[in-house]
Each structure stands twice: as C-alpha cells, then as structure tokens.
Amino acid sequence: MHEHGMCEGLVDLIRREAGDRGITGARVRVGTRHAVVGEAFEQAFAHAAEGTPAENAVLDLVVTPLTVICRDCGGRTESLDVLAVCPVCGGDDVDLTGGDELVLESVSYREERGHVPGHPG
Length: 121
Prior knowledge:
CATH class of the domain at 2-65 and 98-109: Alpha Beta
Order of helices and strands: HEHEEEEE
Number of strands: 6
Mean pLDDT: 89
Distance between the termini: 43 Å
C-alpha cells in the first residue's frame, strides 16, 4: 500500500512543524493520480502517527481532480478518474495534467492550558 509511505512522510513533516505541541487534526490535499483509497489512507495515517504528537489526530483528506484535455475534440474537463476518457466525445486520445499533488494544507493544535492567546508564555 503506497498510502503508508505517503503518510509516514506527512507525519514526519507534522512532527517537525509541531515540536512538542499536540495535534488534533490535519488537512491533506492529494491528487487523483496518487490513486489513494480514503479509508486506507486514513488507516495508514493513524498507524504512522502512533506514538507521535499526531496520534489520534483527525485527518481531513481532500482529493483533487486532474484535467482531461481531448486531442480529438479539444474538450477540457476535470476528472477524479485516472483512466479518464473525454466526457464530451468519448475519445480516449487525451492528455492528463495535474492531480499529482500531495500537500499538507493545515494542522490544528491542542490548546495549551493556562495559555492566553496573544500573550507570551
């Protein structure tokens, strides 16, 4: 499962960013070309996060489409299918672009007790 390798890298990035702060959630944008399975990705993330500040964090996975450009009719559309054909003419002579990103969009941290926002310490 390639999801494990991706999630190990994400958890490493989160750990470097978080330091000792506890993580409550992370939002990850992954392109269609990675062909991730949502449930498998979530399980891989949970496994990679065990024993780290990201353990038990809620994962918000956003899958982004790729762009399908038809060489026959010139149609241009977005698709979540890596084996896309042109939805305009049904042709399979298409160029696929995008959909290959893997981005850690945001991380949510546990609120520290006794800390007043905007005040040091």
